[in-house]
């Protein structure tokens, strides 16, 4: 079994989210890398990240959504 991890956070504060968005400017090449790397894979993420993704970006992946408040499935 092969397990890979992609994790990004802000250098100084180590934040990885800010009010449901990235705490840094959107970088197109980063998103393209993430999409290509996670195709046909299982992606683990929080509920806010899941809800922020456009429907078309959810295709070709299986998701595990982690939340202490989730009521839908």
Automatic annotation (TrEMBL):
Q: Which segments of the protein form a coiled coil according to its record? A: none
**To which pathway does this protein belong?**
Cofactor biosynthesis; tetrahydrofolate biosynthesis; 5,6,7,8-tetrahydrofolate from 7,8-dihydrofolate: step 1/1
* Superkingdom of this protein's organism: Bacteria
GO BP terms = dihydrofolate metabolic process; folic acid metabolic process; one-carbon metabolic process; tetrahydrofolate biosynthetic process
InterPro entries the record matches? DHFR, DHFR-like_dom_sf, DHFR_CS, DHFR_dom
Q: What GO molecular function terms would the record report?
A: dihydrofolate reductase activity; NADP binding
Keyword annotations: NADP, One-carbon metabolism, Oxidoreductase
Q: Does the keyword Oxidoreductase apply?
A: yes
Q: Which family does it belong to?
A: Belongs to the dihydrofolate reductase family.
Q: Could you tell me what this protein does?
A: Key enzyme in folate metabolism. Catalyzes an essential reaction for de novo glycine and purine synthesis, and for DNA precursor synthesis.
Q: Which protein are we looking at?
A: dihydrofolate reductase
User: What gene codes for this chain?
Assistant: dfrA10
